[in-house]
Specification:
Elements (H helix, E strand, L loop, with lengths): L10 H5 L6 H15 L4 E8 L3 E8 L2 E6 H10 L6 H13 L5 H7 L1 E6 L7 E9 L2 E4 L8 H15 L5 E5 L2 E5 L14 H10 L7 E5 L5 E5 H10 L5 E4 L10
Length: about 250
């Protein structure tokens, strides 16, 4: 669900390799981290006799403890620039990518379709939480029982039905996209009948509707034959699903 811990680097950054120093990263961290704290997210920069300076993120039951030297190495590997502005942006992105707590998933989680594993051969329903222009996956903690997990998923499904999007019809294909967070486009499929109604209102009558799902890309909706051609011609992994199969997809 992510393009890498610190995102893709530009061409000039890929051509150079300037190590990110722990000292530079610490100076930036001392300025950047305190404003990122919230009522439920606590951030501290502590000294460890073995690991040196360590960043600790604590939010409900989730706790992340990462030495600055490890972050500096990851940023160097990702070709993050060494200016204070570039280090600040990378460090902020790292904080935003922290694990999603159970309570936050219960309050803000949305159901979307995502790959079930790294083989990208099947999709299933997943609860995600939006942070800025990203949608982060929720993994239930060991403390939650099955009924609690089911409640979070049920509420996330109800919330997904209200997620907006934009519809564009191109010939025999209807494209549904989320304007800010691409992964949220598939949230509309928790109530697929509503999307069919929108498509019909836009003038496209689908007799055997199928959807081509490529997580983090717009949904392509078309009749079976057209959808099969789309799935065969795309250069990226995708799943073609008949409308009736959407209700049978499992949770991941």
């Amino acid at each position: 669900m992510s393009g890498g811990l610190f995102g893709a680097a530009g061409l000039l950054q890929r051509l150079r390799s300037v190590p990110v120093s722990v000292a530079d990263l610490r100076r930036v961290a001392e300025e950047v981290l305190p404003p990122l704290e919230t009522g439920r997210l606590q951030i501290s920069l502590v000294e460890d006799r073995v690991d040196g300076p360590v960043v600790v993120l604590e939010e409900h039951e989730r706790r992340v403890r990462t030495p600055l030297r490890d972050l500096a190495e990851d940023m160097t590997d990702a070709r993050v620039g060494s200016t204070p502005e570039e280090l600040a942006a990378a460090l902020t992105a790292w904080v935003h990518d922290r694990p999603v707590p159970d309570a936050v998933a219960a309050e803000d989680g949305v159901a979307v379709l995502d790959w079930t594993d790294r083989t990208e051969t099947a999709v299933g329903w997943r609860v995600v939480v939006r942070r800025g222009d990203r949608a982060l996956p929720w993994t239930p903690s060991a403390a939650l029982d099955r009924r609690a997990v089911d409640r979070v998923r049920a509420v996330a499904g109800e919330r997904a039905a209200a997620v907006g999007g934009s519809l564009r019809v191109e010939g025999p294909v209807a494209l549904w996209a989320h304007p800010e967070v691409p992964l949220l486009a598939s949230a509309v499929l928790v109530a697929p009948g509503l999307l069919l109604d929108r498509i019909a209102a836009a003038g496209l009558d689908l007799h055997d509707p199928h959807v081509v799902v490529t997580p983090s890309s717009p949904l392509a909706c078309a009749d079976a034959g057209v959808a099969a051609r789309l799935a065969g011609e795309t250069g990226e992994a995708c799943q073609r699903l008949p409308w009736r199969q959407l209700a049978r997809l499992r949770w991941i």
